[in-house]
Amino acid sequence: MEFPFDINSFFGDQISVLDQNLTATRKCWGRADFQHQMATVIDELGKASAKAQQLQVPITSAAKMQANRHQLYVLKDGEANNGRGVAIGFLKVGYKKLFVLDHGGAHNEVEPLCVLDFYIHESLQRHGYGKRLFNHMLENERVEAQLLAYDRPSQKFLSFLRKHYGLAASVPQVSGSACESIPVC
Ligand code: ACO
C-alpha cells in the first residue's frame, strides 16, 4: 500500500511495534506531521482489512489504537515506491477476558492474548509475509500460536494457522463472544 509521503520517517524498522501512544520511532515524538501520516497509514490498512473480511466497520484505526491497550505490528518494504516505502500489512493483538467453552461444555474464564486483526495487502498474499509478521509477534510476545485466541478467524487465516502452526481443531464458542474459537492442536 503506497502513500504520498515517506513512511520510513516514522516506521524505522521493517516491522514496527506500536502501542496506545502510536510512537514507532524517536523521530515521531513531537512531530505532528509524522503522527498524522502514521495515523493515515493505520486507518487505510484498517479499512483495507475490513474490506478483505467484508466487515461494515474497520476493527483497526489510529483512534481505536489510542483508546485500547493493543499492540500493532506493521510490516513495510522500506525501499519500494522510490524509497518512500510501502505498507505490506499488519497484525493486531491484545488481551481479552473470555468465557470459553471446553470440550465438556463447561464455561471457563480466561484472559489470553487474542489475535484481533490481521491483513496482508492483496498483491502480496501467499508470499510468506504473513508468516514473517506472525512469527515476529510470537517472539516479541513470548507466546506460542496454540496459546493464543483468535477473534472470528477468516477462512484464509484458518488455512494459514493450519499450514504454518498445525492448528486444526477448535472449540466453537457462544455466538457473539469476543473470540469465537481457540484452535487446539
Ligand atoms: N486463500 C486461502 N488460503 C490463503 C490465502 C487465500 N487467498 N492466502 C493465504 N492463505 C493461507 C494459506 O494457508 C497459504 O498457504 P498456501 O499458499 O500453501 O495455500 C498461507 O496462508 C500463506 O502464508 P503466508 O504467505 O505467510 O500468508 P499471507 O501473507 O497471505 O497472510 C493472511 C495471511 C493475513 C490471512 C492474508 O491472507 C490476508 O490478509 N487475508 C485477508 C484478510 C484476512 O482474512 N485476515 C484474517 C482476519 S481474521 C483475524 O484477524 C482474527
TrEMBL record:
Keyword set includes Nuclease:
no
Residue intervals passing through the bilayer: none
- Look at the named UniProt entry and state the broad enzyme category this protein falls under: transferase
- Please tell me where acetyl-CoA binds in this chain: 118-131, 154-163
What's the EC number here?
A: 2.3.1.108
Q: Cellular component GO terms, alphabetically? A: axon; clathrin-coated pit; cytoplasm; focal adhesion; microtubule; spindle
Pfam family for this entry, one: Acetyltransf_16
Reactions accelerated catalytically: L-lysyl-[alpha-tubulin] + acetyl-CoA = N(6)-acetyl-L-lysyl-[alpha-tubulin] + CoA + H(+)
Show the CDD domains listed in the entry.
Answer: NAT_SF
Give yes or no: UniProt keyword Cytoplasm: yes
Q: Per the annotation, which location comes first and is thus the protein's main one?
A: cytoplasm
N-acetyltransferase domain sequence ranges: 1-184
> Would you identify the family this protein belongs to, as annotated?
Belongs to the acetyltransferase ATAT1 family.
Q: Which InterPro entries match?
A: Acyl_CoA_acyltransferase (IPR016181), Atat (IPR038746), GNAT_ATAT (IPR007965)
What would you give as a GO molecular function for this chain, any one?
tubulin N-acetyltransferase activity
UniProt-annotated location(s): Cytoplasm; Membrane, Clathrin-coated pit; Cell junction, Focal adhesion; Cell projection, Axon
- Describe its function: Specifically acetylates 'Lys-40' in alpha-tubulin on the lumenal side of microtubules. Promotes microtubule destabilization and accelerates microtubule dynamics; this activity may be independent of acetylation activity. Acetylates alpha-tubulin with a slow enzymatic rate, due to a catalytic site that is not optimized for acetyl transfer. Enters the microtubule through each end and diffuses quickly throughout the lumen of microtubules.
In the record, biological process GO terms are: neuron development; regulation of microtubule cytoskeleton organization
Q: Where is this site: Crucial for catalytic activity?
A: Q53
The record's SUPFAM superfamilies line, in alphabetical order, gives: Acyl-CoA N-acyltransferases (Nat)
Protein name, as recorded:
Alpha-tubulin N-acetyltransferase 1
